[in-house]
From TrEMBL, chains A, B:
FMN binds at residues 55, 95, 145, 149, 219-220. This is LLM class flavin-dependent oxidoreductase. CDD domains: Nitrilotriacetate_monoxgenase (cd01095). Transmembrane segments: none annotated. The keyword Flavoprotein applies.
């Protein structure tokens, strides 16, 4: 079989377009589980590798928040746990920050989800996303970038150690003798580090995947190094094939130094997709959403994407003002958008409108054939192992992709027609990690 | 309609009897979601008010842990979220400790579960349960009892404040004007206290129940005062009707001082139930489990119940040694068991065997009529508003109760034949709390 593309369905309540909720076809309640369930089932019927859920541990506070559907949403682990019970095969990737969590809780929740879903859990490790988060966890100011990453690295090591608390074959459950688990098949972690002291063991057995799949999205130098060291999937925003190729080559090139081969890390750029039967129909569909963008709301979103700057004081037709580098974990996105504004001489309102759908991700508005051509070019041209698919509105935008684009990818032999494996690791072609602490016991 | 009894189904992987997993009829995998799903559906078919899940944030470390099925289990919020998707009406009560959590996370997860389940979430607030937990969260020693409760009180206030971040009618979702929520219908909490600084608002809308139901289990003086101040359901272990009556009268008597009426707090003692068609058959069923108790395992469980003491050094036929008062949040249970041992002159092995099923909860081993008689006597005699039902093995022990005892209670007019309401509050007869910060806006 030729190399297969991986596809993630990036969930966001009403869809990724900031004005999606205003469209007559879109259920506008971000806390309606039925809509998520329908979306998940559409993605699973199309054999997507995974559902992906972003997160923030604060409500947006910009003045235009009242005009977007982004203020309230489900907590990702509870949402994906619920979806695990109404799906069978699709992976479930939730975001959780290392900046305002405890590693024991995070290790436990993802291991629990991996058991609930029979091996479909993934953890998108992020450092943090909004200065507002600090205030909800007893801090006056945000943790600086470098310290955030140092904490993230240690956090990840503790989580991984906790996931390896138990041998895979620890639980004999011998009813006759009364021995439930081998006493030697569990270990305390006894971690003592710069940021954490964690004794262990975890109170969850080693999970079906050994460890839930580790996903990262940081694109800064520090973020890339952390990803090269430990990530198994990287999501990223890349504005062109050339940039995607450079990122792909750079990140894959770092793996050998960490003793890893290129297959152990999958790179999946985000791609914003609007599908139509003709180019004109696709553009018309896209314009329906664009026409609903209140320019002030577009600029509000822009401010958030740049790293939580309030741009409401600037005239809508002014150019993007010079901004200091953000400390908010959005530095790569800030750079990308600043370049875009400069290259195309966009006003604030124009830039806000431009990112209203894909938020800086590569955008494809066209026919199934055109979209498949582009995805294939990236996939075969060293730009991507797969894609995290953003659609303007949910669930219908995903249905468009599932019903029109996926079959075209399947005809070309680029994407599965049915699931071959049962776990997220199997979908992604990632090995199940052995437990280094119990190697001599063997794996089940 | 006469006053109705409330019933909780206390879930525990293989059942409450410490040797349940050894029984041939019992699925012995504590991480099998299918068993939980079946159990939940049995409870819902019998119209139980709620499922209840206990918790600890540490694996047991006593030497006999290898001989019990209690070392690994699902994290409660992920488990109940998954169960929310495969049930329709039954309440979902999860335990979460205030000692090693952040209020923002706890508020958020329970609000999210309340939305996922359309109003069925409950939070069992505990202070903590095992010294081993401290070591997983950067502490060398456990937080002392008094400080734990002070923290718990402030924690609960912060969570409640966060649950009230949004007016019930905040979200207008006006597609025409583009207004998603009223800008004035959200408030920051700006809490600054002894233990926490939390800005808010919560990034989850006010939930279907207004606030998830608040459950507590502490029976100490401090625990009772906290319950009288804020709890809506209290679980408790009471060894006799007389003691249950005293507890009930004491706790209900405290409510007026906090401006609350007696209906605003439901008291639900735990009751361990083994059902048979005849007394002899019930006793025989119970003995099948008792015969599977390894005495060392019984004593290991006893040590945990007394507050995490290692009793493995004492001879099995010695009396219970004098122990210092535990600091482990089990002080009431310790007192209860110490009295039991003294009154009946039990050896360690005998006491361990005695608690192997109900762990100090009131035990009923008999016919449906006998069991219904006792429950009715407690319910009508001022000892209980309902019961948290513990069964030796799951799912079959609960099925016994559902199929044999519930119909007897229904015949007597003591328990619903079908759900009247949709939310946990409605099942329990608890009012939906108004949002004090947005009273002038009215409720939906």
């Amino acid at each position: 079989m030729p190399r297969q593309m991986n596809l993630g369905a990036f969930l966001m309540a009403t869809g990724h377009h900031v004005a999606a909720w205003r469209h007559p076809d879109v259920p506008a309640d971000p806390l309606d589980f039925a809509t998520y369930k329908r979306t998940a089932q559409i993605a699973e019927a199309a054999c997507f590798d995974a559902l992906f859920v972003a997160d923030s541990v604060a409500a947006p506070s910009d003045p235009l928040a009242s005009h977007s559907a982004r203020s309230v949403y489900f907590e990702p682990l509870t949402l994906l746990s619920a979806l695990s019970a109404v799906t069978e095969r699709i992976g479930l990737i939730a975001t959780a920050t290392t900046s305002y969590n405890e590693p024991y809780h995070v290790a436990r929740k993802f291991a629990s989800l991996d058991h609930l879903s029979a091996g479909r859990a993934g953890w998108n490790l992020v450092t943090s996303d909004a200065a507002a988060e600090a205030g909800n966890f007893g801090r006056q100011t945000h943790i600086p970038h470098a310290e955030r990453y140092a904490r993230a690295r240690e956090f990840q090591q503790v989580v991984q150690g906790l996931w390896d608390s138990w041998a895979d074959d620890a639980f004999v459950r011998d009813k006759a003798s009364g021995l439930f688990h081998h006493p030697q098949a569990v270990r305390t972690l006894d971690h003592v580090g710069e940021h954490f002291r964690v004794k262990g063991p975890l109170n969850v057995a080693r999970s079906p995947q050994g460890r839930p799949v580790l996903v990262q999205a940081g694109s800064s130098e520090t973020g890339r190094e952390l990803a090269a060291q430990s990530a198994e999937v990287v999501f990223t925003a890349q504005p062109s094939l050339a940039r995607a190729q450079a990122f792909y080559a750079d990140l894959k090139g770092r793996l050998a130094r960490h003793g890893r081969d290129e297959q152990s890390l999958k790179i999946m750029p985000g791609v914003f997709v609007v599908v139509g039967q003709s180019q004109a129909q696709a553009e018309d569909k896209y314009e329906q959403f664009q026409a609903l963008v209140d320019p002030r709301v577009g600029v509000g979103l822009l401010g958030r994407m740049l790293g939580n700057f309030d741009l409401s004081g600037y005239p809508l037709d002014s150019p993007l003002p010079a901004l200091p580098p953000t400390e908010d974990g959005q530095r790569s996105r800030q750079q990308l958008l600043t370049e875009l504004a400069g290259n195309e001489q966009l006003t604030l309102a124009q830039l806000g409108r431009r990112i209203a759908g894909g938020r800086g991700h590569y955008s494809l508005v066209g026919t199934p054939t055109q979209i498949a051509d582009e995805l294939q070019a990236w996939f075969e041209g060293g730009g991507a192992d797969g894609f995290n698919v953003l659609v303007p509105h949910l669930p219908l935008g995903l249905e468009d992709f599932a019903v029109q684009v996926v079959p075209e990818l399947q005809r070309r032999g680029l994407f599965r027609r049915q699931y071959q494996g049962h776990t997220l690791r199997e979908h992604l072609g990632l090995q199940r990690p052995a437990n280094p602490y119990f190697a001599e016991r063997g794996q089940p």
